[in-house]
Write a structure and sequence with these properties.
Blueprint (H helix, E strand, L loop, with lengths): L1 E9 L2 H9 L10 E7 L7 E8 L2 H18 L4 E10 L7
Antiparallel strand pairs: 1-3, 1-4, 2-3
């Protein structure tokens, strides 16, 4: 599984979540299989999002689309987005 990890600061989590839930990229159509959203317990104005993909091509396409989208919202809804594409090597649930 391929994971696109996104991290950035937000000023208003509820406002950001509303924008995320509006799904401007149509995640399912873009190949996203699922997502997870994390907030550090010591910084509720920071979010980490994992988008899961079957293949690297879909992850790279979504990343390009995100860069275009962020041009409109960086500094307004999100701040200083950082990304990384990961290859899940092992997932063990206990």
């Amino acid at each position: 599984m391929i994971v696109l990890r996104i991290e950035h600061r937000v000023n208003d989590f509820d406002g950001w979540k509303k924008a995320f839930d509006s799904d401007p990229l149509n995640r399912k159509k873009s190949g996203v299989l699922g997502h997870r959203i994390f907030r550090p317990i010591d910084n509720l104005n920071y979010v980490i999002i994992d988008l899961e993909f079957e293949n690297i091509n879909d992850a790279e396409s979504v990343l390009l689309a995100l860069h275009k989208l962020w041009g409109n919202v960086d500094g307004k809804i999100i701040f200083n987005p950082q990304t990384r594409i990961l290859n899940l090597v092992e997932n063990n649930n206990y």
